[in-house]
Fold Saposin A-type domain-containing protein.
Amino acid sequence: AKPVQFALYYESLCPDCHIFFRNQLWPTFQKVSSILNITLVPYGLAQVKAVGDHWKFTCQHGPNECLGNVIETCAIHLLKKQETFMPFLACIEMNTTVLPNESAPDCARQHGIEYDDIRKCSMSGLGNSLEHAMAEMTNKLSLHHVPYVTLSGVSYAWLIFYSATVKLFF
Ligand SMILES: *[C@@H]1O[C@H](CO)[C@@H](O)[C@H](O)[C@H]1NC(C)=O
Ligand SMILES: *[C@@H]1O[C@H](CO)[C@@H](O)[C@H](O)[C@H]1NC(C)=O
Ligand SMILES: *[C@@H]1O[C@H](CO)[C@@H](O)[C@H](O)[C@H]1NC(C)=O
C-alpha cells in the first residue's frame, strides 16, 4: 500500500506548533510511522526577500525562530530519512524551555546525530537556499495560520470534516 502523504507547515517557535508536535504528530509517528510519508516544512508565516546574493527571512517570532527554522531545514536535508529527522525535530519542538539552537545539540546527542554538519549548514549559503525552498513550498499555499497540515496534498481542515479515518489518526 502507498503511504499516506503527510505534510506539516509550521515555524519553530509557534506555541500551537509545539503543542501539535507534542500531542499529535509525535505520538502518531510513534504508532504509525510506517504508513506515513512525512514532509516537514519549517517556514510558516515568515517572509522572504532577496538581498544581494542571498535570501533574508523575517520570522513571526523573530530571528531566533528563523534560526530554528534553518536548523530544522538543514537537519531534514542532511538526515534525509523520516526515521532519523523526526525524533530529532520532535525533540527540539517539544522543548519549550530553551531556544531551538540551544536544544538542538542535546537532541542530536540523545539521538546519535552528528550536530556539527547541521550547525554549519544552518550558517551557510546551502542552508539559506534550502530555507528558500521551504518558503516557496509554503507560499504555494497562502497560509494564514500554523500549524497547517495536508494529507496527500489536501488541507487537513477540510479533510477532518469528511473523514473518520483522519479523526482516528489524530
Ligand atoms: C514521500 O514524499 C516525497 C516528497 O514529499 C516524495 O518525493 C516521495 O516519493 C514520497 N515517497 C513515498 C514512498 O511516497
Ligand atoms: C542561540 O541563539 C541565542 C540568541 O540568538 C544566542 O544568544 C545563543 O548563544 C545561541 N546558542 C547557541 C548554543 O548557539
Ligand atoms: C530542553 O533543552 C535543554 C537544553 O538542551 C535541557 O537542559 C532541558 O532539559 C530540555 N527540556 C526539556 C523539557 O526537554
